[in-house]
């Protein structure tokens, strides 16, 4: 067994992978700056020693065999510089996932711009309740498991091969490896959920992103399987590069796995599933929205492929819980429901608000959007962000995250979006520059909400951050 040291262990995925390695018997330690709950509690309860801050003395004390470098760690980090000078073996987190966790197991990799975390969570839970005891790597915090990563649970001398489910992130791997993470996960079964432009900090264009996905599908062996979203033209285009069996999924005619007779309600979705025109059964899920219906079809297709029955699959859905920050109800404030969601891309915002309107057809929806990602702080989605709030009644547009990174003519123009939304009859609040420069600018939003709030409202936070502290202010 190895002695592994994780530089950047406080990241959600890094910490989860570190724990999975410890469960395999490896000696694990690491370091990070400003480790705070829940990750600090998670690491401490897991018995993993970690150092606050970065120092060569940490490496000297731990005396590791191998250094695992997180993709947030860059040149100039004192521990990284020490390891380079002393010629320690350096690997990325995806390297560790591939070598120690996937190994020779059947690798199921879920990719796409949207829906990766949810689809991976559903798939892992269906295999779990189907008694296949999979390993998994899920980028968010899954609702049905206590950790985001674990090894395959079914390894025995008589049954050495199990299933490992990975959320296949297209983001880069490490400072020394700019490939998309999913290219290291050796897929046997792959999913293309959707492909759009995102991650403007590492991809120059949609064509640039497509290159990574083309490489991904070409990794799937001839006896593998590629599941492709039938209503996504980019996915269908990329699938032409594959040299494996291809099966489409969706709701339109021509889908190999197709949901028909779909019924949406305030409590969930029911549908009949066809496989190549043959009825497999009727399913009921507590998930809302067409995007989650498609996520579920992909997961069901995987479950059938590995041998589960319709009854086993429905049993799994009966107890499935969405990952954290996916339409997660986090409390009430002045009687209004407060919901948290990770959506920060225009398409994800559109689909999330549609699902919310499905659940609350008569309530006023207050959508609070924070332009925080590298793509949404720039004007790349200027037009799309004007059109994605149709289902909201009130829109709050938060402060741009670190706008100084870009020239003014490249920044998102929030006032222009606000004016268009007001012309469409919506109430809109934007954050003045002087307020947005403060770390806790969420208090400015709180003051506005206190003036307009009604107990029949639904507040949804759409952000991959903390909305200038507003999230905590609403759930005290």
Describe the structure.
There is one protein chain. The protein is built from 16 helices and 23 strands. A 10-stranded mixed β-sheet has the order 8-7-9-6-12-13-14-15-16-17, sandwiched between helices. It has a 6-stranded mixed β-sheet with strand order 18-19-23-20-21-22, covered by helices on one side. A 5-stranded parallel β-sheet has the order 3-2-1-4-5, sandwiched between helices. It folds into 3 domains: 86 residues, Rossmann fold (3-Layer(aba) Sandwich), CATH 3.40.50.720; 224 residues, UDP-N-acetylmuramoyl-L-alanine:D-glutamate ligase (3-Layer(aba) Sandwich), CATH 3.40.1190; 147 residues, Mur ligase, C-terminal domain (Protein-Tyrosine Phosphatase, Chain A), CATH 3.90.190.20. Helix content is 32%, strand content 25%. Strand 20, helix 12 and strand 21 form a beta-alpha-beta unit. With 476 residues, the protein is α/β, with parallel strands linked by helices.
Structure described in brief:
This protein has 476 residues and is α/β, with parallel strands linked by helices. It has helices at 12-23, 39-45, 56-62, 78-85, 93-102, 116-129, 206-218, 233-239, 290-305, 310-318, 346-359, 384-387, 414-423, 433-436, 442-452, 470-474; strands at residues 3-7, 27-32, 49-52, 66-69, 90-92, 106-111, 135-137, 149-150, 163-167, 172-174, 177-180, 189-192, 225-229, 245-250, 257-265, 268-275, 278-285, 328-333, 336-341, 364-369, 394-397, 427-430, 457-462.
Keywords:
about 475 residues; alpha/beta; UDP-N-acetylmuramoyl-L-alanine:D-glutamate ligase; Protein-Tyrosine Phosphatase, Chain A; 10-stranded mixed sheet; 6-stranded mixed sheet; 16 helices; 23 strands
């Amino acid at each position: 067994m190895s002695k592994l040291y994780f530089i950047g262990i406080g990241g959600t995925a890094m910490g989860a992978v570190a724990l999975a390695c410890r469960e395999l018997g490896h000696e694990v330690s690491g370091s990070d700056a400003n480790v705070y709950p829940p990750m600090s509690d998670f690491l401490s309860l897991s018995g993993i020693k970690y150092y606050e801050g970065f120092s060569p003395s940490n490496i000297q004390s731990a005396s590791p065999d191998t250094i695992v470098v997180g993709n947030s760690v860059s040149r100039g980090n004192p521990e990284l510089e020490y390891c380079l000078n002393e010629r320690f073996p350096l690997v990325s987190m995806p390297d560790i996932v591939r070598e120690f966790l996937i190994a020779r197991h059947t690798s199921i990799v879920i990719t796409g711009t949207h829906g990766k975390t949810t689809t991976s969570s559903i798939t892992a839970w269906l295999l779990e309740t189907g008694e296949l005891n999979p390993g998994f790597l899920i980028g968010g915090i899954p609702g049905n498991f206590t950790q985001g990563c674990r090894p395959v649970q079914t390894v025995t001398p008589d049954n050495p091969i199990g299933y490992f489910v990975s959320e296949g992130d297209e983001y880069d791997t490490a400072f020394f490896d700019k490939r998309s993470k999913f290219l290291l996960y050796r897929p046997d079964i792959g999913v293309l959920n959707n492909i759009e432009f995102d991650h403007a900090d590492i991809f120059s264009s949609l064509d640039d992103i497509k290159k990574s996905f083309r490489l991904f599908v070409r990794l799937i062996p001839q006896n593998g399987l590629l599941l492709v979203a039938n209503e996504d033209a980019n996915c269908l285009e990329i699938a032409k590069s594959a040299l494996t069996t291809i099966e489409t999924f969706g709701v339109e005619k021509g889908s190999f796995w197709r949901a028909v007779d779909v019924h949406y309600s305030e409590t969930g979705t029911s549908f009949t599933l066809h496989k190549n025109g043959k009825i497999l059964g009727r399913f009921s899920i507590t998930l809302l929205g067409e995007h989650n219906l498609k996520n579920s079809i992909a997961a069901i297709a995987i479950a059938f492929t590995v041998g589960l029955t319709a009854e086993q699959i429905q049993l799994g859905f009966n107890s499935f819980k969405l990952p954290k920050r996916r339409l997660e109800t986090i409390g009430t404030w002045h009687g209004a429901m407060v919901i948290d969601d990770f959506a920060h891309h225009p398409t994800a915002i559109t689909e999330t608000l549609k699902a919310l309107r499905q659940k609350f057809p008569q309530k006023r929806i207050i959508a609070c959007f924070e332009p925080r990602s590298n793509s949404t702080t720039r004007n790349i989605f200027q037009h799309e962000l004007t059109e994605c709030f149709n289902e909201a009644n009130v829109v709050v547009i938060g402060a741009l995250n670190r706008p100084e990174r870009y020239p003014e003519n490249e920044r998102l123009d929030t006032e222009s979006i606000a004016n268009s939304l007001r012309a469409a009859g919506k109430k809109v609040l934007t954050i003045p520059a002087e307020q947005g420069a403060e770390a806790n600018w969420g208090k400015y939003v709180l003051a506005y909400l206190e003036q307009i709030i009604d107990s029949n409202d639904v507040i949804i936070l759409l952000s991959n951050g903390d909305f200038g502290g507003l999230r905590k202010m609403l759930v005290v």
